[in-house]
Each structure stands twice: as C-alpha cells, then as structure tokens.
C-alpha cells in the first residue's frame, strides 16, 4: 500500500503534535515542518523590534521581511530541529513563556498568516512531508492525504507543558500554565481567519491516557489506513 505523501497534524497547545509529528516523519523518512515555530519566530522578531502586537499592519510587514529557516538540528541539545531567524539560531528563544503569551496575538493577523501559509505550501510542494499546526488540514494543505487532529484535556496539556519546561529548568505553577493554555485555546479557536478546528475529514486522536509510544502507534495506524 502506498504511504500518503502529505500528512497534516493539527491540534491545540500541548497536545503532543511536535513530538508525535517528528517521530512520524522520522519513521516515514519524510520532512518534518512544525508551523508553530514559524509563528513563534515572527512573534520573537516583533518583541525584539518593539512592534506593538496590536499593530496588524506592522506585523504583516514584519512577517514578509524576516527570513525564517527550519532545518535539521545543528546542535545536539535535545532539539528536534533548528530555527534560524535572519540567520540567528532562535530555536530555544522562541519557546519562552513570553513568546507563548504573544504568539496567538501575532498569529491571528491575516497578513501574517498569508505570509506563513505561502512559505508552508512551497515547502510542501515536493510532498513527503509531515506538517503540524492549527490549520494545516483545513487551510494550508486541504488536500493532504491524511489528516490527524491530536488532542487531550486542558489539564493533561498543562501537565505536559509543565514537564517540558521543567526539563529545561523553568519551573512554573500548574495553575498558571493551565490558565495560559485555556487562553491560547480561546484566541486560536475564536479568531476569524483559520481558527483551530478539526478538518471534516480529519481523524481525531485523543491522547489523555496514552504514552508517547502509544499515541505514535495510534497515529501510524490512522496513517496506514486506506483513505475513506
Ligand atoms: O507547541 P504548542 O502547541 O504549544 O504551540 P505551537 O504549535 O508552537 O504554536 C504556537 C502558536 O502559533 C499557537 O498558539 C497559534 O496561535 C499559532 N499557530 C497558528 O496559528 N497556526 C499554526 N499552523 C501553528 C501555530
């Protein structure tokens, strides 16, 4: 059976898209593209340059100006990929709590999305790609051959985010993380352009009680299944 050539994985913050997406890509020998990293890089550039997160025009211009490159890891420090912003390695900088808070505001600006979606489609042009984000199955690659919507309860997602930050030495109260996740879900789900929602033909995978290995198996089974 031929393997699908483009796989879209969407879902809310902390559902495990990046972890599972990277593993699926590795297993299939496909390119992995975490589109969240691109929005994070634009948010980082905006903070650096003092661009007001409410200034949609300035954010749109910035998104067209910056050069974002995502490629294989250049340092062996646990990263799944390296993110370059105008040539500078921002892989870890874009994972900070400050960026978590600003990024949904930046990502809801239509001109920012247009600039990112154009680049994402170009990167998927040759196929053999696993792309993860919020709107991949609905907007970026509506013809993707397999679509997975990965999700988990907010409490579980806050727990995972807490563990992830703790592993990097940043200890944050669980309640605070839960609050942030709920706020981000709300902004991502209620924005007018490309809101977070499963595509009609996506398979929803609930991961609350699953280990990474179990979630991976489940997603690989969905991918291997003949398309409906
Ligand atoms: O890793 P986590 O799921 O927490 O977030 P992410 O995937 O890195 O995405 C960060 C933010 O970028 C999201 O909260 C969205 O606001 C935005 N985003 C988006 O709007 N569309 C995408 N395709 C990917 C991310």
Your description of this structure?
The protein is α/β, with parallel strands linked by helices and 228 residues long. The protein has one domain: P-loop containing nucleotide triphosphate hydrolases (Rossmann fold, 3-Layer(aba) Sandwich), CATH 3.40.50.300. The protein contains 9 helices and 8 strands. The protein has helices spanning 17-28, 35-49, 56-65, 97-107, 110-124, 136-140, 154-167, 174-190, 212-224; strands at 6-10, 31-34, 68-71, 82-85, 88-89, 129-133, 146-151, 203-206. The strands form 2 sheets. The chain has a 5-stranded parallel sheet, sandwiched between helices. β4 (82-85) and β5 (88-89) form a beta hairpin. α1 (17-28) crosses α9, α2 (35-49) crosses α5 and α7 packs across α8. The longest helix is centred in the C-terminal third of the chain and has 17 residues, at 174-190. It binds cytidine-5'-diphosphate (CDP).
């Amino acid at each position: 059976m031929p393997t699908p050539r483009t796989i879209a994985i969407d879902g809310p913050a902390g559902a495990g898209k990046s972890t599972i997406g990277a593993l699926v890509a590795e297993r299939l020998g496909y390119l992995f593209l975490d589109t969240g990293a691109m929005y994070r890089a634009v948010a980082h550039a905006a903070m650096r340059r003092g661009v007001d997160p409410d200034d949609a025009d300035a954010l749109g211009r910035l998104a067209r100006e910056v050069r974002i490159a995502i490629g294989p890891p250049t340092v062996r420090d646990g990263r799944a990929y390296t993110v370059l912003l105008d040539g500078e390695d921002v892989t870890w900088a874009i994972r900070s709590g400050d960026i978590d808070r600003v990024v949904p505001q930046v990502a809801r600006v239509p001109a920012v999305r247009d600039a990112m979606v154009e680049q994402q489609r170009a990167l998927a042009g040759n196929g053999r790609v696993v792309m993860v984000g919020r709107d991949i199955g609905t907007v970026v690659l509506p013809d993707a051959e397999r679509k997975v919507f990965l999700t988990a309860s907010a409490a579980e997602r806050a727990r995972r985010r807490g563990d992830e930050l703790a592993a990097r030495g940043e200890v944050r109260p669980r309640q605070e993380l839960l609050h942030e996740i709920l706020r981000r879900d709300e902004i991502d789900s209620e924005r007018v352009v490309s809101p977070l929602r499963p595509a009609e033909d996506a398979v929803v995978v609930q991961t609350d009680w699953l280990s990474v290995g179990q979630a991976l198996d489940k997603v690989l089974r969905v991918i291997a299944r003949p398309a409906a």
